Automatic annotation (TrEMBL):
Subcellular location per the Swiss-Prot or TrEMBL entry: Cell envelope
Sections of the chain in a coiled coil: none
Keywords for this protein: Cytochrome c-type biogenesis, Disulfide bond, Redox-active center, Signal
Signal peptide (from-to): 1-19
A Pfam entry, by short name: Thioredoxin_8
Organismal lineage: Bacteria, Pseudomonadati, Bacteroidota, Bacteroidia, Bacteroidales
Gene Ontology, cellular component aspect: cell envelope
Name of the featured protein: Thioredoxin-like
């Protein structure tokens, strides 16, 4: 009878537990292996559990098919549940990813026990989200954490994260300390740390504990129960970000703990990584530090100036701001999902964790005019600012630095998006009204330091190129021709200052007028012509009638003028860059950084050391030490490369192998004749082609995967100097007994490319043992295992 009563009581309790449906609206989670999958809501009822999900996938996923596993799983209290149904997607069936790459759906499982407060959910083999729970369940001070183990506490007066307690460690003062001894008595604690420091934790009263560190006064602290630090109790009205003037040698230190990482997270990497964008190269630079057995690390990394960075991109995926000279402590607790910053000045960093800070990249649509796109881009910008204002209404203590950072991010992002539109409008020239808006609203008020946002240098690149093209370039579809005449007055004015040429102000003014009018006339006449039959006739034009053309040509024929221009002709791109940036700003640091970017572009494109005239220009024009030294250091790399012996020089074949030949097919057959009966992997590339060079840099992975096959790697180089060609081969170690390189004269290379139907670079082909040619996609080797199987079929 007693057992029966107990059973009835338990049944009543269980039923009472589901007297009403519970809804988790404020979701927090632990570790997730992908950043684009989120749990947005959970509904727990007596007969089912429904988990609402949101996918926000990368742009490249648009139009592709996605599949939700037929057996999505939920794990709670040691039990595994399979999804019974999905709403918005069908289990195990493909769905087309929409244009905006956003997908909302829900997974339905059997009912969970009424006591469930935490679970994990996964799509086996794809994504996993651990420790899904409701933040509101612990937000009330009446439901504080029990004890102090695995808890984090903030100073109630300042709002800063003061201290954290783990089972055997304490986080305090940007460091993880060992606990040597810990005593507890009636919810009070005394801890002795490894350097003798004593911490006293008082009894919890109304959600507050007094915490005394060493001989200091007790500090009132409340627990941090949400994913990020809650709002600060007072407003911070400070403005601006640390600006060191782009000084060389500055650094930032990040200490931290990736706490309680699951095995899957450990497998991703045994290092803590920080990625930043190099202002001069536009490339992402990664800095790493080894994790100890607990996931702790210390990373000191160089920094040019304040910048946005991504912390631990493989696991934590946390965007933040790093300022030179600062030390930060970063915690990611993989069990609770909490991410917190500790340090002397980390309010902005904690606010960026707590609040969304992204710029939705906007692109001009097919058929959309520049002005229509500008209007749409403005609406996107206004929507973000409106949302931020709403956030400020609900969170009035958000710091001014956070507000300024978000506005600056929007400006840099909109500037980049709007200038990218130049590649999708007729002639690649944007309307004056459009450019006036970009200049006054986005360029002139750009926040400092300029390194703060990765979008800004890309915005600057396109903006300056537009200014240059407006003055000096002409579009002849699908080409763009840059005219040199606009640079000659600039060169001659400098040559006169250096005492190298005798020329009057009136003559320079005439040359400037000629350049402007010739540009207009060239554009007018070229409008309906083809590049291969282009003819510009000045007869009868104003330049001819007014005698300007004749006077201009007379000046250009003078020996001192000809010599001065010949000495500087290779610098025209640099002169145009200097003219564009100096017309856009008076900020000396930005001018120097823009010039350094142009020098890097030249080095990276041609892969050879700079000519003496280039070096003279750099030393004379770039005043900022960090910018100049970057250029000189990059140049030294190619100087060293040019003095390096070429290993396996026999891999480089002379063009005499096909001397006096003009037929593309016959030349190719002649080249591959020595390798008859072997499989040939053909790569058509150029030293000027960035994707080509990136693929060559990674080509060792392909060769390693195919090392068991007898394959000849044949490289045909397009439009590249001998020095650049050899430097790239040395740089990426592209020689060996199975490597063959040709850098043929332009006409012969073009003939072979015409035969192979090459219309983009890089182009890859497979020539089988019988000499048949097969197309190969330039991304086919991304899946190395599948690519290996494909090549294996040819090598049978």
């Amino acid at each position: 009878m007693k057992k029966l009563l107990s059973t009835i009581v338990l049944a009543i309790v269980a039923t009472a537990g589901w007297a009403q449906t519970r809804i988790w609206n404020n979701i927090v989670t632990g570790y997730s292996n992908v950043p684009f999958v989120k749990v947005t809501k959970v509904v727990l009822s007596a007969d089912s559990t429904e988990v609402f999900m949101h996918f926000d996938m990368p742009e490249r996923a648009a139009g592709q098919e996605g599949v939700l596993a037929a057996k999505s799983l939920l794990q709670a209290d040691g039990k595994t549940y399979e999804a019974k149904n999905a709403v918005g997607m069908k289990l195990g069936q493909p769905v087309k990813i929409p244009k905006d790459c956003k997908v909302d759906f829900s997974l339905v499982f059997d009912a969970l026990p009424a006591s469930t407060w935490l679970f994990s959910i996964s799509d086996p083999g794809m994504w996993i989200i651990n420790a899904v729970r409701d933040a509101d369940a612990n937000a009330d001070a009446d439901v504080p954490p029990v004890g102090i183990t695995d808890t984090y506490w903030r100073n109630t007066l300042t709002g800063d994260w003061l201290i954290g307690f783990a089972q055997h460690h304490v986080i305090y003062n940007n460091k993880v300390w060992d606990i040597l001894n810990q005593t507890e008595q009636k919810d009070t604690y005394v801890l002795t740390l490894n350097d003798g420091l004593t911490i006293k934790v008082g009894k919890l009263k109304k959600g507050i504990r007094p915490i005394t560190i060493g001989t200091g006064k007790a500090i009132a602290c409340n627990p941090i129960t949400q994913e990020a630090l809650p709002d600060y109790p007072t407003k911070d009205t400070r403005k601006g970000f640390v600006d060191n003037g782009y000084r060389e040698g500055d650094s930032v230190t990040i200490v931290g703990w990736l706490k309680d990482m699951p095995e899957q997270a450990w497998k991703q990497s045994g290092e803590f990584e920080v990625g930043t964008s190099n202002f001069i190269t536009d490339k992402t630079e990664s800095f790493t530090a080894k994790l100890d057995s607990l996931g702790r690390f210390t990373l000191r990394m160089p920094i040019l100036n304040s910048t946005t960075a991504i912390l631990d991109p493989r696991r934590s995926w946390e965007w933040s701001v790093l300022e030179p000279g600062k030390t930060y402590f970063f915690l990611n607790d993989f069990t609770t999902g909490q991410k917190l910053f500790m340090g002397d000045d980390v309010r902005l960093q904690n606010e960026l964790v707590a609040c969304d800070a992204t710029w939705p990249e906007t692109r001009i649509n097919p058929g959309e005019s520049a002005m229509q796109f500008m209007e749409r881009a403005n609406k996107v910008f206004d929507a973000i600012i409106t949302k931020m204002q709403a956030d400020i209404t609900h969170r009035p203590n958000l710091s001014q630095r956070y507000i300024d950072y978000i506005k600056g991010l929007c400006m840099a992002g909109q500037g980049y998006s709007m200038m990218q539109a130049r590649f999708d409008v007729p002639g690649n020239i944007l309307p004056k009204e459009y450019m006036d808006y970009v200049n006054t609203k986005l360029w002139q008020p750009a926040p400092k330091p300029y390194t703060l946002y990765s979008e800004f240098p890309r915005f600057m690149r396109d903006y300056l190129d537009q200014l240059r093209d407006e003055r000096h370039s002409v579009s002849i579809d699908p080409y763009r021709i840059t005219l040199n005449d606009g640079a000659y007055p600039i060169i001659l004015r400098q040559a006169r200052a250096d005492g190298k040429v005798s020329i009057t102000d009136e003559e320079l003014a005439l040359m400037e007028r000629y350049a402007v009018e010739f540009h207009k006339e060239y554009a007018k006449q070229a409008k309906n012509q083809k590049i291969d039959s282009l003819n510009i006739d000045l007869a009868g034009t104003d330049l001819d009638k007014l005698g300007i053309a004749e006077q201009y040509l007379a000046i250009m024929e003078r020996p001192d003028v000809k010599k001065a221009i010949e000495q500087e002709i290779s610098l025209i791109d640099l002169y145009y860059q200097k003219q564009a940036i100096e017309s856009a700003t008076t900020d000396r640091a930005l001018i120097d950084l823009a010039l350094a970017r142009k020098f890097y572009w030249k080095l990276n494109s041609f892969r050879k050391s700079l000519d003496p005239s280039d070096l003279n220009f750099a030393n004379k024009e770039i005043k900022l030490a960090s910018a100049l030294n970057f250029v000189l250091t990059e140049n030294d790399k190619y100087v060293a490369l040019e003095h390096q012996d070429l290993a396996n020089a026999a891999s480089l074949r002379p063009s005499t192998d096909v001397a006096n030949m003009t037929d593309g097919e016959k030349m190719l057959r002649k080249i591959i004749e020595p390798y008859k009966g072997r499989v040939i992997y053909l790569d058509v590339w150029g030293t000027w082609c960035s994707p080509c060079k990136q693929k060559l840099k990674d080509s060792w992975k392909v060769k390693e995967a195919l090392k068991d096959y007898d394959i000849v790697y044949l490289y045909l180089c397009n439009g590249s100097s001998d020095a650049s060609w050899k430097n790239v081969i040395k740089e990426y170690n592209l020689t060996g007994p199975n490597c063959v390189h040709y850098n043929l004269p332009k006409e012969q290379q073009s003939a072979i490319e015409h035969y192979l139907s090459v219309n983009s670079f890089p182009t890859y082909k497979i020539i089988d043992k019988q000499g048949n040619i097969h197309d190969l996609g330039w991304l086919d080797d991304q899946n190395l295992e599948a690519f290996k199987q494909t090549m294996g079929k040819f090598c049978k």
